[in-house]
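WARN no homologs supplied; continuing
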Amino acid sequence: MLVGVLALQGDVAEHRAALAELDVGSRPVRRPEDLSGIDGIVLPGGESTTISMLLESSGLAEPLGKELVAGLPAFGTCAGMILLASAISDGRPNQRCYGAIDLVVRRNGYGGQLDSFECDLEVASLGEAPLHAVFIRAPVVESVGAEVDVLAEVASPEALAPSGARADGRGAVAPGKEADGSSTPVICRQGSVLAAACHPELTSDRRLHGLFVSMIAKSVRSND
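OK structure emitted
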């Protein structure tokens, strides 16, 4: 199995290290020819508008879109979730989104850098142990299509307490208590596409990457 990692900007090395821990080979994808022979692709966290512009200038925008339409399994984290979504509610007019998963997202929906936070997620498909998740200028999922499976949720931005209470020495902001019981999806799956608003590559828990690897192994494309 060979997994491509979009290597235009963002957490490329961290995703490749996570895959290596699972004994899965990876390749940085910077040019259209780098798409050849890969069984899946990771779209990492970073700056979604910057990555969108670099997709165009590198010549990757259309070839990657064709691969996704053809069924290439994909895993998008943070900015990668935005790129895979069907619509961006506050995106620039020419900002790229591939429609690989039926989500409408809003960039930086939880606030700016100081509103970043960490929390434990209940993800039934990953087992009983909670998944520790890191959210940095994370996108908010505003709507979910009928074919999308929501694997994890957190309190919606409106339900989180104002930032200011530091959770740990790294300066993360702890999410506040829910004000009204509302929540928003943060990990979603549709077919062979997995999208997360958090950064699993920044923790030591490899279960979400492992789930993506299992999705590749089960995909029709990988068995051709």
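The radius of gyration is 16 Å.
OK
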